[in-house]
Design a protein that fits this description.
The protein is of the alpha/beta class. It has a domain at about 1-155 and about 180-215: Spore Coat Polysaccharide Biosynthesis Protein SpsA, Chain A. The chain has six helices and 14 strands. The chain has a seven-stranded mixed sheet with strand order 3-2-1-6-11-8-12, sandwiched between helices. It has a five-stranded mixed sheet with strand order 7-13-9-10-14. The longest helix has 22 residues, at about 100-120.
Length: about 270
């Protein structure tokens, strides 16, 4: 099983609501297209974006404070549990900006994924982190399930990038590990992980370095991810492809469209 964790901002905070809906739909479409359906998605959010984004394999977990329609506050853990079976106590805090909000939601998604694994008796599984406006290689879940020991961590630095507005694509050489990375977890009967289950809550750029420092057998796999740029909604303020660093433009081929489930989006007028 692959447990995918991600975060989704309060809908009021997206400068371009239509592009937000399109990129979220494309993200879910790349999961719909997975060749191996043995996965589950955990999305932490404030408000749900609408029933058209529901999927049987997706769980939406709100950290909103009941009665706070502004979504300027959030319920966050008082401390992070040491095991998947431990009860979580929450406190109310201000959202404190998009980066803080995303980090807190990632923590929450990891907690919810671990609790789900414990409730369902999973003893070994992969946890994979994603941004909810990017696209996953359609064979990624299958690839992880086929990956043999000793590898317990997978990350990429070289990926694809797409600009929906300008309909352009590129190869992107990221200097560190990107936002898609995966770790194989093992869970004891009591719910304790044999690895730090908050790995995915750290800065994604440190993932490659950290697994090496912790002597976790790792594998670098290129082109598992397609990053969306120039959407107007990126937390990192990504620009047009021509203004991105370390990119080389390429043609959008049918094979690349199939790789990331792009056909539905690219067929739009």
């Amino acid at each position: 099983m692959v447990l995918i964790v991600t975060s989704f901002g309060a809908t009021k905070n997206y400068p371009d609501p239509e592009m937000m809906r399109q990129t979220l739909a494309a993200f879910l479409g790349s999961l719909d297209a997975q060749t191996d359906k043995s996965f589950r998605l955990f999305v932490s959010c404030h408000d749900h974006p609408g029933p058209e984004f529901n999927r049987p394999w997706a769980e939406w977990h709100s950290i909103a404070v009941p009665g706070d329609d502004t979504f300027d506050k959030a319920r966050i853990p008082v401390h992070f549990p040491s095991s998947a079976g431990e009860e979580v106590e929450y406190r109310v805090a201000c959202s404190d900006g998009k980066l803080t909000d995303m980090g807190r939601k990632t923590f929450n998604s990891v907690i919810e994924a671990g609790r789900w694994a414990h409730r369902n008796g999973l003893r070994e599984f992969w946890m994979l982190r994603m941004d909810s406006d990017d696209l996953l290689w359609r064979a990624m879940v299958e690839y992880l399930h086929l990956l043999q020991e000793p590898f317990r961590a997978v990350y990429n630095r070289k990926c694809h990038m797409i600009d929906y507005r300008l309909r352009e694509m590129a190869v992107h050489d990221f200097p560190a590990s990107t936002t898609v990375n995966a770790l194989r977890y093992r869970l004891t009967v009591s719910g304790v992980f044999d690895l730090d289950w908050y790995y995915h809550c750290r800065d994604h750029t440190t993932f490659a370095r950290t697994v090496r420092e912790d002597n976790i057998p790792y594998l670098e796999k290129d082109f598992t991810l397609c990053i969306v740029t120039n959407s107007g909604n990126s937390i990192s303020g990504r620009p047009e492809i021509d203004k991105e660093k370390n990119v080389q433009k390429i043609a959008i081929t049918p094979a690349l469209a199939e790789r990331y489930g792009l056909d539905a989006y690219l067929s739009r007028a």
